[in-house]
Amino acid sequence: MSAKPKIRELLDESACEHNKSKKVACNAPTPGATTGGCAFEGAQISLFPYADAAHLVHGPMTCLGSSWETRATATSWQGRDFTQMGFTTDVSLNDVVFSGEKKLTDSIDYIMEHYAPEAIFVYSTCVTALIGDDLDLICKQAAEKYDVPMIPVHAPGFVGSKNLGSRLGGEAALRHLIGSKEPETTTPFDINLIGEYNVTGDMWQYSHLLDELGIRILSTLSGDGRVADIRTAHRAKLNVIVCAKSLISLTRKMQEQYDIPSISLSFYGKRDTSNGLLAIAEALGDAELIERTKKLIAREEAKLEEKLAPYKKVFAGKKAVLNTGGNKSWSIASALQDLGIEVVATAVKKATEADRVKAREYLGEEGVLMMNPGAEQAKLIDEKGAHLLLAGGRSLYTAIKKRIAFADVNQEKKKSYGGYNGLLNLAEDLKNALENPVFKLVSRRAPWEK
Amino acid sequence: MGEVINKSGKPLQVNPFKLSQPMGATLAFLGIDKCMPLMHGGQGCTSFTKVFYTRHFCEPIAIQTSAVTDAIAVLDGGDYSIVESVKNITKKVTPSLIGLHTTGLPETKGDDIRGVAGKVEFPLVYVNSPDYEGGLESGWALTCKALIEQLVEPSEQIDVKKIVILPHVSLQPIEVEKIKQTCEAFGFTTYALPDLSTSLDGHLGDKQAALSSGGISVEEIKHLGDATLVLSVGDSMQKCAAALLGKNSSMRHQHFSHLSGLEASDSLIELLMQESGIELPQTNIVRWRKRLQDAMLDSHFSLGQTRFLVVGEPDQLAGICQSLYEAGGRVAAAISSVDSLQLEKIRAAKVLVGDLEDAEKLADDYDLMIGNFHCEALAHRLGKGLVTRGFPNWEQVGNALKNDVLYEGGAYFLFECANAAEEWRTHKAS
């Protein structure tokens, strides 16, 4: 049997809500009207955070050249941090004509000789998939030669979207790593964190709380992750999917193969963090643990409220318009409400049905769900008297025109907004935005304009 | 000049700073006003490129993809995906030009984009720019050549007051503007192809991210064939100059490997004086020359005791290394992303084609690195000084306004390097 995952199967995920409502999975991109990353990028996102493994991209220069060192996926790994390194075969015309297999084999040898990683993930790309280089065979041979896992990742860009690529990354981990090693010890409270990439240290905002509760993170896919740990993931009692729908196929298959239940949650904002912690405790089903968790939540929330008090004074009466996509359409809204900011509108154009329902829940009947935020947001700022626009960089001009404060929702790529403490980072950034005179000053009329 | 190694001996790139040919092509199209760059390949290439330049310039970047999928890759020769792309783009916006450029995927399967371009009834320029060949510099140059070949109208007239600049890819928007202004100071109407100086210079305006805004217009490109003088800057641009001269045998061409440092700046000014008959340049040019002279003397002590490693594109290396050399900076090694004839001319003890792993191996040979943002982690780990230059620079703002060329830019550049070197020395001592 081919080791390549079946794309059709992955697209037709039975655990996906849209498949229950008989909607066709959106896969085919429209030429000339497509945005968003490819499957290769998705696979990269889901697997690159393993800092003890080398990630070798078998393809031409665009694939890795423009994408390495782009994500601040923090790690506590003491060895050479491979998350911030780039390896690529940089295939040339010669390889395209005569095959790039030799180059790939030589590259694996080079990496083993010079860096001795715990594993190598080998990514196929459009060009090397098209010329038919046999990654499976090369990885198998190299794994035997070095007695180290060599994982072929079959997610060439042209098979689909970033989301599909993340699934394919999960698939590679399931086929080649999960279940290949036994953990030294197990506890009744062992969990896997799936889809938490520890970007800017998000995971560390709450991992110490899990620790305190006696919940052990057995493995992660893949934030601050280790290859040796994910190999033991089949012994966990619970899979926790953090803000990542794409890995739902992985957790469903782990349920089927290893009988591990899963829950999906987010650690964004106070309420979500508290709900998340409690959901994990409840899923693990231990009455004492649940009690402990409730106490910890009460303590942490009180601590946070005390630190938030001065911010809440600044935010009192402030209204915000939120223009982002996916689960952020409600998760950021919830965090803003935790800070005492009224969210008058949120964009749901790029959100799923379930996300829209949740957004409505958080915003209430008065809140506006924008289906066409580009056109609606300026009008809503006026109508609702908003003080703050949270959006991607493109919307900056809307804020300047309306002379209101602007905060880039992608700022979280530099600074963690996760967990209880992340909310303080968000509060500080929003306070700075509201106090910054630049948004009013910068669009001042020039002396020569009438 | 020192030892030159034209080929990396390794099977792979480790921590590459090399960038791909289609990305160079995209950037060139962004120097055309109201252009929509259309990258022919999988959607990821476009997405990566868009994010890459958005982060470097802190500006919205216009680009679209033909979004080739696995099934399309097998069944289509480009006819469907390209024609369909043009249809979908023009449904929403009306670009003055569509800039079709390829990636490795369609080139591997052999799409005939020239044939497809012939079927498209919309202004379109095509260029073959697979990412398994060349690099950023060649992608930019190939595109410039394609723009000339496919747009510039043949002419027999000469406008004695018109100059065309052909700048290499590593010249930042402000540098292109400074070169243009210098020519204008001698009374010439000056055009740059491509021209990032008015598109990606980072200016607040009513921008619609949907198309590039600013840059040379398609009409202006059509009429470049009557310039009296074509100035190519960077060896990668020589072929573009040849293509432009092919449009009008009466045009003359002058080539500069770079415009950095006192000597190169002098030769440009000398040329412009001859061409214009002006015997004394404007006061500010004269003044800036004096300032550069002073800067060279003020910085020579520090630079003279500093060993440099410079990494970048070939044409960029030529300029940076010459500037340092003139004030006594010792370039221990220059690492180029790709091979080029330019490498033979670079003022460095050692010139090689390589990656940042090579930079790491040479660690004992230098004190200060000059290179892109990927050098930061390395400089930090090895305890080296750093001056950031080249694509990408995601951690700093103001990249479009960093000026290293001619008298003025040269002075600022030397000061920045000398100050970085002193900071490094102080830091090392403490």
UniProtKB/TrEMBL annotation, chain A:
Matches recorded under SUPFAM superfamilies: Helical backbone' metal receptor (SSF53807)
Domain Nitrogenase/oxidoreductase component: from-to ranges: 38-434
Gene Ontology MF: a single term: oxidoreductase activity
One Pfam family named in its UniProt record: Oxidored_nitro
GO terms under biological process: nitrogen fixation; protein-containing complex assembly
InterPro entries (alphabetical): Nase/OxRdtase_comp1, NifE, NifE-like
Superkingdom as given in the UniProt entry: Bacteria
Family per record: Belongs to the NifD/NifK/NifE/NifN family.
Protein name, as recorded: Nitrogenase molybdenum-cofactor synthesis protein NifE
Organism: Malonomonas rubra DSM 5091
TrEMBL record, chain B:
Keywords (A to Z) from UniProt: Nitrogen fixation
This protein's pathway: Cofactor biosynthesis; Fe-Mo cofactor biosynthesis
Domain Nitrogenase/oxidoreductase component: residue ranges: 20-420
GO molecular function: nitrogenase activity
GO terms for biological process, alphabetical: protein-containing complex assembly
Top-level taxonomic group: Bacteria
InterPro entries: ChlB/BchB/BchZ, Nase/OxRdtase_comp1, Nase_comp1_CS, Nase_Mo-Fe_CF
PROSITE patterns per the UniProt record, alphabetical: NITROGENASE_1_1
Function field: This protein may play a role in the biosynthesis of the prosthetic group of nitrogenase (FeMo cofactor).
Similarity annotation: Belongs to the NifD/NifK/NifE/NifN family.
Classification via PANTHER family: LIGHT-INDEPENDENT PROTOCHLOROPHYLLIDE REDUCTASE SUBUNIT B
Protein name: Nitrogenase iron-molybdenum cofactor biosynthesis protein NifN
Naturally occurring in which organism (per UniProt): Malonomonas rubra DSM 5091
